[in-house]
């Protein structure tokens, strides 16, 4: 199970421009998870995706969004947590959170386990999970704290497909639910409390 003493929470791209009718349901779960994580005094990395002129997203997909605020801003519900002690903000222009800067940050945090939540299951979450696996980290994808914001395809189907790919390529046991993470955090807090 998750080694909480060596784990960081990765909140992937929970930005205004990625929250829509298909992904909004995951935001409260992510906020609750990030809040509990901060209370456990474990590090959290918040990523923000930025698009740019002549990017592959423009040229190959025809997607033209998230060039700057307010679309690139972390959602209001997470803004305070994202600037709290123990939180780190990582900007990126690619799918993965494991950019050279991201890898340097994770190395400095001395973590082995990455608890991953965010948007979109089928893009940045999927790529981050696969890269974490290949870079030797133990990824844990929180099923109810990830969502697809797909509009060109059926978001729910794309989300489930991505989770299936993660289960197959990273390990079925690596896809967990937020109540399990909450339970582990509660057990850790109880073990750390002085006994009377």
TrEMBL record:
<dbReference type="Pfam" id="PF00857">
    <property type="entry name" value="Isochorismatase"/>
</dbReference>
<keyword id="KW-0378">Hydrolase</keyword>
<feature type="domain" description="Isochorismatase-like">
    <location>
        <begin position="7"/>
        <end position="160"/>
    </location>
</feature>
<dbReference type="InterPro" id="IPR050272">
    <property type="entry name" value="Isochorismatase-like_hydrls"/>
</dbReference>
<protein>
    <submittedName>
        <fullName>Hydrolase</fullName>
    </submittedName>
</protein>
<dbReference type="GO" id="GO:0016787">
    <property type="term" value="F:hydrolase activity"/>
</dbReference>
<dbReference type="InterPro" id="IPR000868">
    <property type="entry name" value="Isochorismatase-like_dom"/>
</dbReference>
<dbReference type="InterPro" id="IPR036380">
    <property type="entry name" value="Isochorismatase-like_sf"/>
</dbReference>
């Amino acid at each position: 199970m998750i080694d909480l003493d060596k784990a960081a929470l990765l909140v992937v791209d929970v930005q205004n421009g990625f929250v829509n009718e298909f992904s909004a349901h995951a935001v409260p779960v992510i906020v609750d998870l990030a809040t509990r994580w901060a209370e456990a005094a474990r590090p959290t990395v918040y990523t923000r995706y930025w698009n740019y002129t002549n990017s592959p997203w423009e040229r190959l997909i025809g997607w033209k969004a998230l060039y700057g605020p307010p679309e690139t801003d972390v959602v209001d519900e997470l803004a305070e947590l994202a600037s709290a002690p123990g939180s780190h903000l990582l900007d990126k222009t690619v799918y993965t959170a494991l950019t050279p800067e991201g890898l340097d940050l994770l190395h400095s945090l001395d973590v082995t386990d990455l608890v991953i939540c965010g948007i979109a299951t089928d893009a940045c979450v999927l790529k981050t999970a696969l890269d974490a696996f290949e870079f030797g980290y133990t990824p844990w994808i929180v099923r109810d704290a990830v969502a697809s914001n797909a509009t060109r395809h059926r978001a729910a189907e794309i989300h489930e497909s991505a989770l299936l790919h993660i289960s197959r390529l990273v390990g079925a046991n690596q896809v967990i639910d937020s109540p399990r993470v909450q339970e582990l955090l509660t057990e850790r807090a109880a073990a750390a409390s002085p006994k009377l």
